[in-house]
Amino acid sequence: xxxxxxxxxxxxxxxxxxxxxxxxxxxxxxxxxxxxxxxxxxxxxxxxxxxxxxxxxxxxxxxxxxxxxxxxxxxxxxxxxxxxxxxxxxxxxxxxxxxxxxxxxxxxxx
Amino acid sequence: xxxxxxxxxxxxxxxxxxxxxxxxxxxxxxxxxxxxxxxxxxxxxxxxxxxxxxxxxxxxxxxxxxxxxxxxxxxxxxxxxxxxxxxxxxxxxxxxxxxxxxxxxxxxxxxxx
Lengths: 110, 113
Description:
The complex is a heterodimer of chains A (about 110) and B (about 110).
Chain A: E1 2-3, E2 5-7, E3 10-14, E4 19-24, E5 31-37, E6 44-50, E7 55-58, E8 61-66, E9 71-76, E10 85-92, E11 98-99, E12 104-109
Parallel strand pairs in A: 1-11, 3-12
Antiparallel strand pairs in A: 2-4, 4-9, 5-6, 5-10, 7-8, 8-9, 10-12
Chain B: E1 5-7, E2 10-13, E3 19-24, E4 31-37, E5 44-50, E6 53-56, E7 65-68, E8 75-79, E9 88-95, E10 103-104, E11 108-112
């Protein structure tokens, strides 16, 4: 099955700093989605970027997509303690058998 | 705002017993997903429905797991018999179509003793 692979597996920063996490995938996509999961809860959709887009913003989030390198990055600016969570990317393709990777565990220290 | 509903939220059972989980997706969503998530891992897709049809169940342990979405609306995931290794969070999600944003329910945390 196709899944995104997030990197790094864990990231620890201080409040107010920026956090960058990366995602790589293997086959063609129609879009790429980022999700957040707070401890013990369901996933929440953050942002979707289509394959013909290179960059997208939503509040403090900035996502880039490079289809030639099959990679995406998620930047969270001015991080807050409430941003502490696991972050997952999901490569949305036309085929089935899509699933999630292991995610990036972000810890924002107050 | 419409949400995906799941029940029960927590389930404790003994091994070899049968358990069932229920999911009610957002109205109008054609695609429904069941995931299993072990602590520290990402969600693993167990089964995906498009309306009432199964389009992917390649990771579903079919000797003990079954899933149905009879009228293309709500869905049930069953495990019989439960094993110790089935302890996990079971997440349900739905989307308008198969490539769209997924909306997740709160999950059912299963503990098998």
